[in-house]
Amino acid sequence: MRRAAVAALLLAALALSGCGRQWTHPYIAGPRAEDKRFDTDSATCRAEADRAKESDRARVFEDCMTLQGWEKKD
Predict the structure, then answer these.
(1) pLDDT, tens digit, for every residue of 19-60?
(2) 23: helix, coil or strand?
(3) I need a labelling partner for 69 at 20 to 30 A (CA). Which of 6, 17, 22, 39 fits?
(4) Which of 38, 1, 15, 23 is nearest to 71 (CA)?
């Protein structure tokens, strides 16, 4: 039973490790400051993307984030 619980925890950790944010800001040093700025900037960019045509929304969002100084993680 204990071995199954450890295996389940490891599997859950691996599954969640890919769920992190895909953007980084090279000029913001602290993770809390980056999180706060990401929330603000991504909300602004989502609002801008929502005003675009549906087929252009992803591109508009990414362009907006890039203009805010964010870079996509590899």
Answers:
(1) 567 999 999 999 999 999 999 999 999 999 999 999 999 999
(2) strand
(3) 17
(4) 23
CA distances (Å), 52 to each of 12, 58, 59, 61, 63, in order?
37, 9, 10, 9, 12
Could you give the 3-state DSSP secondary structure of residue 6? Answer: helix
Look-up of token digits 């005003």: 51
The mean pLDDT value for 6-26 works out to: 58
The model's pTM: 0.70
Please tell me the predicted confidence (pLDDT) of residue 16.
37
| Amino acid symbol at 22 | Q
Residue owning tokens 């252009």: 56
Nearest residue to 47 via CA among 68, 24, 23 = 68
Which residues is 41 bridged to in the sheet?
Answer: none
